[in-house]
Each structure stands twice: as C-alpha cells, then as structure tokens.
Amino acid sequence: MPPTIVVVDADACVPEVLRAPAGLVVAPPEAPLLLEPENVPRLSLEAGRPAPGPVAEACARAAERADAVLYVGAGDAYGQPEGAGQAARHAVEAYAPGRPFAAYDSAAALMGAGWQALAAAEAARDGASLEQSLEAAAAVRERVHVLAMLEHPELATAAGVAELTLEGTRAVVDLHGADVDVLSRIPKRDLALRALRDRFAEQTGGGSGRLHVAIHHAGAGAGAQALATWAERKLVPARLVVAPLTRHAATRLGPRMLGVAWYREPA
C-alpha cells in the first residue's frame, strides 16, 4: 500500500504523460478537453463551479489503496468545487475512520496547481509521508508562475477587472491564484502571442535550476506546439509538456487561449 495518494482537480490540466508515472489521480477522472476551437456562446453554457461529488469519490477510492490521502485544489476560485475539501474529508472518514487526510490550497491556476500536485505525487511515489508530500507541494508553490494570452478576455468575469470586459481586444495576463492581472491589451493575435512569448522569456531568462514548463491551450494546438518548439530550443527545460485545457477551465479562460505555467527547482 503506498503511503499517500494525491488527488487533484481536473482543471489543473495535468496531462496523462505526467500523471501516470507519478500515480496522480484527477477528479473527475475523464474531464473532457478542449482540443478544437469552440463556439463561445455554446461554451459559456457550461460555465460555473463544478460539483464536489467527483472529488469526494476519488478521495474515498484513494483511501482504499493508501495509508493517507492528499487533495490538491485548483486555487483559481473556479476550478475547485465549492466545499470540495470538506466533502472529501467526510468521504475518507466514512470509508476509513482515522485515515490521515489533508486538503491543500495550491493558490494557483492550471498547471500552477498541477506542478504542485505532481511534486507531491512524485514524493509520495518515492515513499514520502503525507507531511513530506505537503512540503514538496509547498516548495513548488513558492516558485510557480502562470502567464496566458486570452483571446476572449471578456469571459474571465471572475477576475473583476474592468479591462477584461473589452471585447475584441486580446489580453496578456498573469494568473495568480484567483487574480487575473492584465499585463497588456493588444488587438492582433500574432502580436499578443509575441508579447506572451517575450514576457515568458524575460521571466525565465537568467535563472538557475531545472526548468519545468507546461504549454496550455484551449483549441489552439498548432500555436501551443510552436511555442513548445521555441521553448525547447531557447530555454532547454528539464520537462516540457503541452497541456490542453479542460472544457470547464476554458469556460473561464476562453477558446483559443494560449499560456505557459512553469517553475524552477532550487539550483
């Protein structure tokens, strides 16, 4: 029996190529991805916080197979179901009274949360206790960053930022937890993507330590692959993955969104 199993919200958008080797569990387990461009009105019909049931069920099942359960929530005030931590705790206690459980707030969106969950899962896979797995996640939380180019920034209404309500203007933003900080507003997509790439290069340049990069997209696979190719050549990351958004995450960040989530290990 493994010491700890880690469960993370599907909106962390951790790709299977990373989840499987670490034994990381996502909830819900088969959340649909947005791989092709989508009609905005149709996508908007799916907006809203997800239900906590899948998280509770995933944590209860994890309690069958592990000495402890760690639930990592997407910290964007959207991808984590309301009350999920408490529902998961009750589910674990009902199945295995006394089984150690912890709910962890990643305070980050997308793979900003995903990198933390992955660090915890990899530590647990290697024999770490629940407390040590929490420490592994927290070490990444201090270093993770998420940038995005929003094709439809008007959808990011949870940000409460006036600039995001301007339709027809792309926005390059910093996603920090539930906050969406507008860095620039650019009308043309190619210029907005260049601004995203340049900002990413500026923030990662000159650092030391192994670089871990996830390229996010919502129905913009060609652009994501182009950015991944550039990052591989220019930045030489230790790990580089393309991570499509779930349809649910895309209801907030919009179709054709492109973004990057990264952190550096200590040198």
Structure description:
This protein has 267 residues and is of the alpha/beta class. It folds into two domains: 5-141, Rossmann fold, CATH 3.40.50; 145-264, Hypothetical Protein Tm841, Chain: A,domain 3, CATH 3.30.1180. It is built from nine helices and ten strands. The strands form two sheets. A six-stranded mixed β-sheet has the order 7-6-5-10-8-9, with helices on both faces. It has a four-stranded parallel β-sheet with strand order 2-1-3-4, sandwiched between helices. Strand 3 (69-73), helix 4 (84-95) and strand 4 (101-105) form a beta-alpha-beta unit. It is globular. The two termini are 33 Å apart. Residues 158-163 have low confidence and may be disordered.
